[in-house]
Amino acid sequence: MESAFVSGYASVLKVNFCANPFMVGIGISRERFSMDTQYWQHQIEEYWTLMNVNKTDIRNVMDMNALWGGFATALNPYPVWVMNVVPSSSENTLSAIYDRGLIGAFHDWCEPFSTYPRTYDLLHANYLLSHYKDRGSYCLLEDIMLEMDRILRPQAFVIIRDEESIISRIKELAPKFLWDV
C-alpha cells in the first residue's frame, strides 16, 4: 500500500512539457518553447555520450544559465536533481521555470553561490561566461571558475558553451584548476 502512494506521488511530479498561456504571456510562444525543449533533449543525449557515463552516474546538476528550464526538462528521464539558476542581471525567466514544476534561483555569478562545497556532479554553463565578460576586475573569469570548482565534486563534469574567445581563455585557465579539457 505504501509503494502505491509513492508511485502515485511520483507521477504527480512529472515535468510539464507544454507551454501554457502564462509562458506565452511572458514572450515564450508555443513554437519557441517546443523548439527549445526538442533542442535540449537532443543535447542531453549528446552530452551523455560525450561524458561516457551511465544515466545513474550523475545525481546533482546545476544549469548556471537556465533561461526557461529546457535543459532541466530534458533531464526528466534521468534520475537527477537539477538546480536552475538565472543570472540576476538577465531577463527574469524564473516564472517559466517554476511554471514547468522546476526549482530555480536568481544569482549573480560574481558572488559565491549559497551551497555546500562539492555538491554538484555536473555544471552546465550555456553562454553564461560571456554575459560577465565586461564586468572588469570586479568579476573575472577566474573568479567564476573558482566558484565552479568549489561547488563541483571530484571527478565531476562542466559543460561550457560560449563564445570562442571565452572558450579559449577557459582552456588556458583549466589546468590551473586541475580540470581536463
Automatic annotation (TrEMBL):
Subcellular location: Endomembrane system; Membrane
MF terms (GO), sorted A to Z: methyltransferase activity
GO BP term, pick one: methylation
GO cellular-component term (any): endosome
EC number: 2.1.1.-
Alphabetized UniProt keyword annotations: Glycoprotein, Methyltransferase, Signal-anchor, Transferase, Transmembrane
SUPFAM superfamilies: S-adenosyl-L-methionine-dependent methyltransferases
Membrane topology category: Single-pass membrane protein; Single-pass type II membrane protein
Homology family: Belongs to the methyltransferase superfamily.
Entry protein name: Methyltransferase
